Amino acid sequence: MTVTSDTERATPAPEATVLPELRSVWWEGGVRARAEATIAAVLAELPKLIYAAFKVSWRASRGRTMVIVGATLGAGTMATFGLLATQQVLVGLFAGGPTPERVRAALPALIALGALTAVRAALGTATGFASNGLTPLVDRTVQRHLYETTTRVRLESFDQDTFSDEMERAWRGCDSTTLVVQAAINLLAGVVSLLAVAAAVVVIHPLLLPALFLATAPTAWAALRAGHLQYQTYLAGTVRRRRLWLLNHLMAMRQPAAELRSYGLRNFLLGQYDRVMTAETAIQLGLARRVTVTTSVGAAIGGVATAAVYVLLGVLLVGDRIPLSAAATGVIAVQAAQRALATVTFQVDRLYAEGRHFRDYTGFMERADEYLPPPAGDRTPGPLTGLSLEGVTLTYPDRDTAAVAGVSLRIEAGQMVAIAGENGSGKSTLAAIVAGLRTPDSGVVRWNGVPTTDLDPDLLRARIGVVSQEFYKWPFSAATNIAMGEIDHPAGQERIEAAAAKAVAHDMIVDLPHGYSTMLDRAFAQGQDLSGGQWQRITAARGFLRDTDLLIMDEPSSALDAPAEAALFDAVRARHGVKTTVLITHRLANIRHADVIYVMHEGRLVEQGAHDALIAAGGLYAKWFRLQKLGYSDD
């Protein structure tokens, strides 16, 4: 593992010439944009980002957004009047005469200043309350909007690299949306504070405004420049951070722990960590020096400029062109402006960097219609009497040949139908088309003679159950994993256990530490891991629970032991004549009793018929059956 030196640059090499582990990663796009953007480009982009941020905020909560904007503007107004009131207090205190009289003269302005300060504090509290409450509402709004789309898009969308990449960026953008809204609010507050100070100094004396700019501009430039250096260094360290993340995973996570100890990898991995961190530490120290120099130069120039402002105030005082009270207020204004400007510069960097990811989210949502299914039918599908496929063809986006090509078949109610074929022959794709999970490029699927595109898709799926070979291990209890088969009509414990018994899962679940209440994920307290065969039983139980008109089982016994497999297929055969079952399996002995066996080869339907007829025909099915039979024979 080579160590990245501090000569890495933010600008990447052309993608085609860069090794995979060195290529840029999408989740650092905002950092890359900020590192490569000039300060002018950053400032030009801000209005659009602020508008978009408040648009999201308005959608999440109009009331809180109005409170934030109103309170922020109100606080700025109070700040302006506060400075003017401060000047009036100083006018009274600096006036001639006995001290009691001066205090009495300043008292009205002092009371007004106290009232303004109290109102401004109250407005700040209102802004904080509204902002804190807005954050979870924005999170919920953008995440719910995204998940409404990702759970509705066509299944084939996930086969497209473009969709997967855009969706990952949109997820990152969800997190950035909240940060963008917060940065926009804070930036608005900082800008309003600056404008409030500017308005006050203009009223006090017009010459104070350019003096205020001279006193604050160098510090602002230094802050933006330091931020630019930090983003560039962060971007250049992409590879190091990815390696550190990997080493953290290898040394501190459960999965690699056994092999780490078996192969004695501790010292090797610690050595890799030391090499990477030595380089990272040196680079961070170098960055600290550069940032310190930049901010020091800015502070020095700003200090000189501030001193010049104070000299100007002195000159104006000596020439009686400005009262002492106005000069003192000008000093307070300079300090207030510097604090506000520090907030503005920090939020500008943050808003621009996170805005890149925020635009990934908004762009994905704008293009989401491309991935949504076509308008659905509204006809109600009745109980299954027959399902047919007519010339169905489907090609995956990254393939030149069709996964399923011109397939026509018919399934009658109550039948047990089997689909056999080699790996990659199109069996699972065909099953997905039958299940309504994939829409063919051409051809028609009919349910009781009606094209499935004319039927209500939700009502149709309620009549179809699927037990997939590529099942997901849902991190819920055993009971919930099975009951997920009936989300709309939660199943009782008796039905759950009956379905588990059909799938040969009941005894296995009862033996778990908490029975059906056991969490099936070790990430949770007292959670348990299951073997592949045990998970397969849970998945089959979910399919049996639904007891649908049509049950499609794709390799349901590939990880089961012999007794469990035999019991599972007994339960499948019990459906024969009552419910319709489609079986996909490589173990041909399990489908000997199927009413019809469809044989797939290279995406095409090449044979069909009952077991005996296919054996007699001497085709592919007969060849595969004889090969499997040899494993149980001495011939």
Automatic annotation (TrEMBL):
Keywords: ATP-binding, Membrane, Nucleotide-binding, Transmembrane, Transmembrane helix. InterPro entries: AAA+_ATPase, ABC1_TM_dom, ABC1_TM_sf, ABC_transporter-like_ATP-bd, P-loop_NTPase, Type_1_exporter. One of its GO terms (cellular component) is plasma membrane. Its main location: membrane. It is found in: Cell membrane. GO terms for molecular function: ABC-type oligopeptide transporter activity; ATP binding; ATP hydrolysis activity. The chain crosses the membrane at residues 65-85, 105-123, 179-201, 207-224, 297-319. This is Multidrug ABC transporter permease. Residues 67-353 form the ABC transmembrane type-1 domain. Pfam families: ABC_tran. It is a multi-pass membrane protein. Residues 387-627 form the ABC transporter domain.
